[in-house]
Amino acid sequence: MKKSLGAKVVAMPSPVWIVGTYGDHNQPNIMTVAWGGICCSVPPCIAISVQQSRLTHSNITKRKAFTINVPSRHHLAEADYAGIASGKYADKFSVTSLTPVRSELVDAPYIQEFLLVLECKLLHTIELGRHTQFIGQIIDAKADEAVLSDNENPAMASVNPLISSAADRKYYALGECLGQTYHIGLQLVDKNGK
Amino acid sequence: MKKSLGAKVVAMPSPVWIVGTYGDHNQPNIMTVAWGGICCSVPPCIAISVQQSRLTHSNITKRKAFTINVPSRHHLAEADYAGIASGKYADKFSVTSLTPVRSELVDAPYIQEFLLVLECKLLHTIELGRHTQFIGQIIDAKADEAVLSDNENPAMASVNPLISSAADRKYYALGECLGQTYHIGLQLVDKNGK
User: Fold this and answer.
1) Does the pLDDT value for residue B77 go beyond 80?
2) ipTM beyond cut 0.90
3) Would you call B173 an interface residue with chain A, using a CB distance cutoff of 8 Å?
């Protein structure tokens, strides 16, 4: 028997991504988001949701660009901090000792120390209510060579990203690999011939 | 030194969610998506991206509703299958032996056997290119009582959701809990006084 929980955003899992932007006087800023996801293959797009009060909201609106920086497990403290503090009052790059690198493709900085980053140009701004959804077109993805598998794509086990849950407000680690997509389900296709 | 990978949708992690919809003649259908995320707190909204060729695209457009069903690890084969087969040719509820339950709140079925489901009304349809993003307002979330923690929210460790990666096309399990959000980062706030 299921219990009704009301209209709550308890979907899971959520990613943990650090958004890189420039503010006034080219001040680089970072902010952690958990609400977002890939949203289109052609053009390649990613969506993130940000409250209007955040500096990142203003920065993206003005610069029409942002980066997505994927923290690995050992950057948990930095990722959590970047979601707590505001760039209006703190230099979050300085506090975390992370290094901003100016993207050559979009008007935003990415984090040198992170293994996987995406450089995005703002494509759509969708006012949803308390949150604004920014959809960015991925102009380039960059990864440290150490995390690339044979097919030149970053291996998730090597990036070892953080996972979060809005429902219980916790961070989790990535667990073991369970297999290839579009593979284990074939047993059901075969059984039924369609 | 980072290597440029080109304009690829290699962000990670992605969720694994099964979307429930009704088609013609009230035929219940399921389809697995990995591209989506929570996108607003007020009103509570969730976004999923679906290609125009999919039956689910047509069903959501006609019925203005869908459900998000969160598969647990032991439903990996069913989740993978629902992403392989098309509801145009197969009765995916029948093949997977899952049970559709008619939502009393929205015009879509949810999966009885799954521990966490969200019932959504279509709020926005955003044409991005090869994918359409459907933003649904969460009307209710329902969970089995066994996965609810003290605060009446579903605990991610109990739901034990699947995690995926578009970059290496693999499924992963959830790993161990690493702590509360807005906690471990406080050490950096304290150190710097802001």
Assistant:
1) yes
2) yes
3) yes
